[in-house]
Structures are given as structure tokens and as C-alpha cells.
Amino acid sequence: MAEIHFTSHLRNIVPDGPLAAAGTTVGEALANLLAVQPQVRGYVLDDRGALRKHVCIFADGERLHRDSALARRIGPDTKLYVMQALSGG
Amino acid sequence: MTEAQWGKSMNDHMSDHLLVATRKGLFALERERSGWASNLIGFPGIPVTNVLRTDGILYAAIRYGHFGPKLHRSDDDGRTWKEIAVPAFPPDAADAPSLFQIWTLEAGGRKFPDRLWIGAIPAGLFRSDDRGETWQLVSSLWNVPERARWFGGGYDAAGIHSILPDPRDEDRVLVAISSGGVWETRDSGASWSVLGKGLVAPYVPPEQAEDSAVQDPHRVFRCARAPDVMWMQHHAGIYRSTDAGGEWKRLALPCDDFGFAVTAHPHSAETAWFVPAMKDEVRMPRDGALCVTRTSDGGETWEIMRQGLPQRDAYDLIYRHGLDVDESGERLAMGSTTGALWTSDDSGESWDLVSGHLPPIYAVRFV
Q: CA of B25, closest CA in chain A: separation in Å?
């Protein structure tokens, strides 16, 4: 199970973490998490299902490119951080 | 506060309650004996792009910089808020846009007490018939072939900023788009016609200047008591219509006729207010001196009113929803991009600064 941490800016939306979700890609793990935490969806993904422009994801310390983040393969012990980008504020 | 205290009066008393949507939160102002008292009632630090109070319920449209647009409602005038569904373009909508911003919210009117309209960027019109629990894209407008000629005005994508149900028949609604012209439905959104004869767009090649679907109405407002009378601040000039938007006449002003905001007197079909700014490559008051202009004779003559407004070093711009008049027609409020808020109790002839230190103001609304 990947371990998923969320930016503290979402503390009113996301339960205290980290949270755990299964998946072989970032997108799969996020989808599994959002299935049980549906209120988080619109904050991380836009209405097309794409990663929001000003949200960035780190996988095991590496900042993922927005266009390919959801397709990134992950292992069972991957730590994901869902953060706000510094742009967009 | 009770409903009676908050509700707009139906008589000639001035409204003592004002909502102010800003770049950094939603404020409620109440008129007290000593002046206006201001309270931050929601969303500190978060852009509130517009606000509506109808039937005792507050709706706040917010747009997180990082996390996208959201919609909240409050049944207790801002003490508590609940996030509700935000409109979304359906997956099969042509061109598959993503909602950037809720630009305007309006009530459906007496005939449709559970109805709300939302105008968005990109220029989707959304309708709810259950007070915002669910939203549907009005696909008949999104799919008009003329949409191929719409373009952004102020924002990257075209957007809907004015939604005007006809109080005599609320199936009939006029919608104004920057930049996509004015559109009318007579069947609650099932079908649409583009209106706007007489409007001229100097920012397109000359042979397209009268194309109704490329006009950039910055804001349209209608007289509540004479709903066929509409006023428009266009990107290029100020116009008035007396046939509910079919034909428009450009009015001659003795001052700049660029700007964004307009509001119409609720009773007098001859009276409206605009806030002049230098035209589009500048977008600030001429000579650093802010004024409001008013006509009381249908646009034949104009008064320029400066009393109480800064007359030097003022760079305030008033956005589309940044000017409102209450139901008495006497009290106005005006909020600027630099966070200044003024009110007037004499129909705009003189103004009082309520605050010069609010966040940038997107919308003001008497309630």
C-alpha cells in the first residue's frame, strides 16, 4: 500500500494522515483513495480527471511532471506527497 | 440576524446589509448608526468570485488558487458553511473544458423558487432546480455553432457574467458573454437566439464588427420595474436597449465610456450608473481621479460625480460586479480592485469611503 500525505492546506478536507491506498500507479492509488474519500476529488483532480494545474505530487521524493504524474508506476512502499504548487496562489 | 433584518425591503427604505466578495474572503457589512460595520464571514485568504443571497440562503462561489472552483452555501447568514456540488462540464461536452471560475450566480425568480443559474469561465451556463444540490450544463447554449467565434475578454476563455431572468416571465432569460454577445432564451434554456443589433466591436476586422456573436458586453443590467430597459457597458462604449436586448443604441458620454460596471435604477427606466475608466490599454481612472457617471434621462445627458471619491493618485478599477444599487434606488455601493469600498446615500452624488484596505473586490451586493 502506498502511503499518501496531503498538504496541510487540505486539512479541512482530508482526514488526518498519512492515508494508505493500493495501486501500481499514482493514478490507481489516488483513485482507490478517492473512492473512499470522495470529497477530496475536486481538490486534487479537475472535472476532466486531470491533476489540477497547481497541485503537484512527489513520489519517494521526486517531483512528478504534471502531465505524466498519474501514470507513474509505484511500488508497494512508495510515499506520495500531494502538495500545492507554489504557482497558483 | 433574522430574515426580516436581512431581506431586501420591498418599499423605499435603504438596504442596511451589503455583501462584499473579495480576493481574500467574504465580508458582510451592516449599517449601524455610526457607519458600516464589517465582518469577515467566510473563506479567509481565499478568492470569493461572487455571492448570492436568495430565499434566506447564502451561496458563495470560491476559487482556490490551487484546488479549483468550489461552491458553498450557508443557511445561517455565514455562521456556518457547507460545501455543495460545483458545476462541471459533463465528460461528453464539446471541447471538454474544465471549470475555471464561477463568475456569476443568479436566482431563478418567483416562478422557479428552487432554481439557480451560474455563469462560468469557460462560458458554460449551468442550471440547478434543487437549490444547488445538482447542476446541469445548459448544453443548448454551449453547443450553438457561434461558440466557435467566442473568445476570452479579461480572462483566457470566454465567460458568462450577466444572467438576467425577466421578472415578468422567468422562462425568458438574457445572458451576456465576454466575448460572445448577448443571448436570449424564452424557454428556460431549451433554445437560444443571439441578440444585439446595433452593437459594434472595433477589436475585430471591420467586416466582422457587427457580428453579434463577437460582441464583448462587459456587463448588462436591466431595470427591475421596466425589464425591457437594459443598460450595457460594452468593451467599446455604453449602450441602452428598450426592447429587452434586441436593439441597442450607443450613448454619447462627456467622459470616458470604457469601464466594466453598470447598475440600473430599480424603478426608473431612465436612470443608470457607470464608472468610467480610460480605455482598454490603460484601465484606470483618467488623471488618477475616480468618478461615477449617471444619467437620469435615458442616456441623453450625464452627470459626473466625484464628491467623496479620490481625485488624485487613484488607480481603482471597478470590476463588473463591483457596483450595486439597493431597492430604494438611493443607496449605492462600489468596490475597487485596490480594495476600496464606498457607499452613497444620495443616488451617487456623494460617496463615503467605508474602507480603503479591503482585499481586491470582485463583487458587492445589497441584500
A: 14
